[in-house]
Hints:
It is a single chain. Helix content is 85%, strand content 0%. By secondary structure, it is mostly helical. α1 runs antiparallel to α5.
Amino acid sequence: MLLFALSFIANVLITFMLASAISRNHPGMTEVYGPDTPARRILACVYAAIGLVSLYGLVQMGLGNTDIARAIGFTLFPLQILYKLATAPALWTMHPVVLANLGVSALLALTLMLAL
Protein backbone atom coordinates (compact mmCIF):
# COMPACT_ATOMS: atom_id res chain seq x y z
CA MET A 1 0.00 0.00 0.00
CA LEU A 2 3.04 2.25 0.20
CA LEU A 3 3.01 2.85 -3.56
CA PHE A 4 -0.71 3.63 -3.45
CA ALA A 5 -0.02 6.25 -0.78
CA LEU A 6 2.90 7.66 -2.78
CA SER A 7 0.76 7.80 -5.94
CA PHE A 8 -2.10 9.52 -4.13
CA ILE A 9 0.30 12.01 -2.52
CA ALA A 10 1.96 12.76 -5.88
CA ASN A 11 -1.47 13.29 -7.43
CA VAL A 12 -2.57 15.65 -4.67
CA LEU A 13 0.61 17.73 -4.75
CA ILE A 14 0.93 17.93 -8.53
CA THR A 15 -2.71 18.51 -9.38
CA PHE A 16 -3.37 21.08 -6.66
CA MET A 17 -0.23 23.03 -7.59
CA LEU A 18 -1.14 22.98 -11.28
CA ALA A 19 -4.80 23.84 -10.72
CA SER A 20 -3.78 26.74 -8.50
CA ALA A 21 -1.16 28.05 -10.93
CA ILE A 22 -3.55 27.77 -13.88
CA SER A 23 -6.35 29.47 -11.95
CA ARG A 24 -4.05 32.33 -10.91
CA ASN A 25 -2.83 32.68 -14.50
CA HIS A 26 0.78 32.20 -13.41
CA PRO A 27 3.12 33.29 -16.23
CA GLY A 28 4.77 29.86 -16.33
CA MET A 29 1.42 28.28 -17.13
CA THR A 30 1.03 30.50 -20.19
CA GLU A 31 4.37 29.23 -21.49
CA VAL A 32 3.35 25.60 -21.10
CA TYR A 33 -0.46 25.56 -21.50
CA GLY A 34 -0.96 28.64 -23.66
CA PRO A 35 -3.04 31.73 -22.93
CA ASP A 36 -5.84 31.84 -20.37
CA THR A 37 -8.85 30.30 -22.12
CA PRO A 38 -12.01 28.45 -21.03
CA ALA A 39 -10.32 25.18 -22.05
CA ARG A 40 -7.36 25.89 -19.77
CA ARG A 41 -9.71 26.68 -16.87
CA ILE A 42 -11.60 23.43 -17.52
CA LEU A 43 -8.25 21.62 -17.37
CA ALA A 44 -7.62 23.24 -13.97
CA CYS A 45 -10.98 21.86 -12.80
CA VAL A 46 -10.08 18.37 -14.05
CA TYR A 47 -6.75 18.57 -12.20
CA ALA A 48 -8.54 19.71 -9.03
CA ALA A 49 -11.02 16.81 -9.31
CA ILE A 50 -8.18 14.29 -9.67
CA GLY A 51 -6.50 15.86 -6.63
CA LEU A 52 -9.67 15.72 -4.55
CA VAL A 53 -10.35 12.08 -5.43
CA SER A 54 -6.73 11.24 -4.61
CA LEU A 55 -7.00 13.08 -1.30
CA TYR A 56 -10.13 11.08 -0.51
CA GLY A 57 -8.24 7.86 -1.31
CA LEU A 58 -5.41 8.94 0.95
CA VAL A 59 -7.83 9.74 3.79
CA GLN A 60 -9.45 6.33 3.38
CA MET A 61 -6.01 4.72 3.66
CA GLY A 62 -5.38 6.67 6.85
CA LEU A 63 -8.68 5.46 8.26
CA GLY A 64 -7.74 1.86 7.49
CA ASN A 65 -10.20 1.50 4.62
CA THR A 66 -7.65 0.04 2.24
CA ASP A 67 -10.31 -1.68 0.10
CA ILE A 68 -11.85 1.70 -0.72
CA ALA A 69 -8.43 3.23 -1.40
CA ARG A 70 -7.52 0.36 -3.73
CA ALA A 71 -10.85 0.67 -5.57
CA ILE A 72 -10.19 4.37 -6.08
CA GLY A 73 -6.67 3.68 -7.31
CA PHE A 74 -7.75 0.89 -9.65
CA THR A 75 -10.30 3.26 -11.17
CA LEU A 76 -8.43 6.57 -11.21
CA PHE A 77 -4.91 5.47 -12.10
CA PRO A 78 -5.71 3.67 -15.40
CA LEU A 79 -7.74 6.68 -16.54
CA GLN A 80 -4.81 8.97 -15.72
CA ILE A 81 -2.32 6.69 -17.46
CA LEU A 82 -4.43 6.63 -20.63
CA TYR A 83 -4.93 10.38 -20.87
CA LYS A 84 -1.33 11.13 -19.91
CA LEU A 85 0.07 8.73 -22.52
CA ALA A 86 -2.28 10.24 -25.10
CA THR A 87 -0.48 13.57 -24.68
CA ALA A 88 2.67 12.18 -26.31
CA PRO A 89 1.24 11.83 -29.84
CA ALA A 90 -0.90 14.95 -29.35
CA LEU A 91 2.13 17.15 -28.53
CA TRP A 92 5.81 17.01 -29.26
CA THR A 93 7.37 14.35 -27.08
CA MET A 94 9.91 16.83 -25.68
CA HIS A 95 7.12 19.13 -24.44
CA PRO A 96 7.41 19.62 -20.65
CA VAL A 97 3.83 18.46 -20.04
CA VAL A 98 4.45 15.24 -21.96
CA LEU A 99 7.66 14.54 -20.06
CA ALA A 100 5.97 15.14 -16.70
CA ASN A 101 3.00 13.02 -17.77
CA LEU A 102 5.28 10.13 -18.72
CA GLY A 103 6.93 10.26 -15.30
CA VAL A 104 3.61 10.24 -13.45
CA SER A 105 2.32 7.47 -15.72
CA ALA A 106 5.35 5.35 -14.84
CA LEU A 107 4.66 5.76 -11.11
CA LEU A 108 0.97 4.95 -11.50
CA ALA A 109 1.68 1.93 -13.76
CA LEU A 110 4.24 0.59 -11.27
CA THR A 111 1.72 1.03 -8.47
CA LEU A 112 -0.91 -0.95 -10.37
CA MET A 113 1.50 -3.69 -11.53
CA LEU A 114 2.82 -4.34 -8.04
CA ALA A 115 -0.70 -4.30 -6.56
CA LEU A 116 -1.93 -7.16 -8.72
